[in-house]
Design goal:
With 357 residues, the protein is α+β, with helices and mostly antiparallel strands. The protein has three domains: 138 residues, 3-Layer(bba) Sandwich (FAD/NAD(P)-binding domain); 105 residues, no CATH class; 92 residues, D-Amino Acid Oxidase, Chain A, domain 2 (2-Layer Sandwich), CATH 3.30.9. Strand 18 and strand 19 form a beta hairpin. The longest helix is centred in the N-terminal third of the chain and has 17 residues. It is elongated, with a radius of gyration of 21 Å.
């Protein structure tokens, strides 16, 4: 079967890979270059999503934990386990017992794919293990394991796998002008007919449909997540509550520096995707709340943003699901939502929907 996959992020790459395995002739369209947009602007974590347990997304977490292990096994040079600490203070919004239950469930859902069980530490132990942290009002702490990746290089690793198939064609720097439910794709002033077209453009999935007068059955909330990088080495990762909020942010060692993120700001698809000054200040303030050696704006050596396509959203973006939905309009299949870690599972569902050639 002749299939067009529109979107060269990690979900598009993994879907193209799986469809090639099924024997289809696959053309992957990307308007820029592969893995150059949302998929390379993540928090660099391969994770089940500990905080998703608060929203009772047990199936998603279990699936993601299984996939976390697959990525680490397949590309250990680009994905490794990382130990992450959770300090609990008197003013923390979540009590220690709630974290304990969440971490127990995280280990349980990991099953045989558990890369390290969570641990509990008293105040003295936390002070010794995490000397960078402020200790006023510190009560206890926990640690757990997740995966950390080089998202850009790992995405290109997957792309290299699919490029080896003779039934695969890659068209980068190719903007799609039109699509139809009958499988017609117009680009560079030419029209080509496909038996199936996969719209897997992430944050742009709804726009591609609306631009072609095709009704979307799923509502996407576009949430910008911004990060900053400081030139400072860090021994451990940290899972932290934003001061006076229930939101979580991460402080992670990454390539000899420290990565801090993320924010959650709703935006339009037409808005520029870059960190704003208030977002940078927000992350600096959150970091300084916890760490002894405080930073200022000039300490930020890099900043970047990505847009997450969230579905089934609540008023609070932090409670929106990271799952995915599939919409079928005759020969056009559109994917809404999804996350980096579960890209392979999403590709299975799309490939099984189409079947083998």
């Amino acid at each position: 079967m002749k299939i067009a996959v529109i979107g060269g992020g990690i979900n598009g790459v993994m879907t193209a890979w799986e469809l090639c395995k099924y024997g289809h002739s696959v053309t992957l369209f990307e308007r820029h270059t592969l893995i150059s947009q949302t998929s390379s602007a993540s928090s660099k974590l391969l994770h089940g999503g500990l905080r998703y347990l608060e929203n009772f997304e047990f199936r998603l977490v279990k699936e993601a934990l299984r996939e976390r292990q697959w990525w680490i096994d397949q590309a250990p040079h680009l994905a490794q386990p990382i130990k992450i600490f959770i300090p609990i203070y008197k003013q923390s919004r979540r009590p220690a017992w709630l974290y304990k239950i969440g971490l127990f469930l995280y280990d349980l859902l990991s099953g045989e794919n558990n890369i390290g069980k969570h641990q509990k530490y008293n105040k003295v132990s936390m002070q010794n293990i995490c000397p960078d942290l402020k200790t006023d009002n510190l009560v206890i702490g926990f640690s757990y394991y997740d995966g950390q990746m080089d998202d850009y290089r790992l995405g290109l690793w997957a792309a290299d796998k699919v490029k080896k198939y003779k039934n695969f064609t890659l068209l980068e720097n190719t903007l799609i002008d039109k699509v139809s439910v009958d499988g017609e794709v117009t680009y560079k002033n030419s029209k080509e007919k496909f038996e199936k077209v996969i719209n897997i453009t992430g944050p742009w999935a709804s726009k591609l449909l609306s631009d072609n007068n095709i009704k979307s059955e799923n509502r996407l909330d576009l949430v910008r997540g911004s990060h900053i990088v400081i030139s400072r080495k860090l021994d451990h990762g940290y899972f932290l509550e934003v001061p006076n909020e229930r939101r979580i942010f991460f402080v992670l060692p990454y390539q000899g520096q420290t990565l801090i993120g993320t924010t959650e700001v709703r935006q339009l698809i037409s808005d520029e995707i870059k960190p704003t000054k208030p977002e940078i200040a927000y992350l600096i303030d959150a970091y300084n709340h916890y760490f002894k050696d405080e930073i200022i704006e000039k300490d930020v050596v890099k900043s970047f943003s990505g847009v997450r396509p969230l579905i089934k959203s609540a008023n609070n973006a932090n409670k929106a699901t990271r799952g995915y939905a599939i919409q079928v309009n005759k020969d056009l299949i559109s994917i809404f939502g999804g996350k980096w870690t579960t890209a392979r599972q999403l590709s299975y569902k799309v490939a099984n929907l189409i079947g083998r050639d």
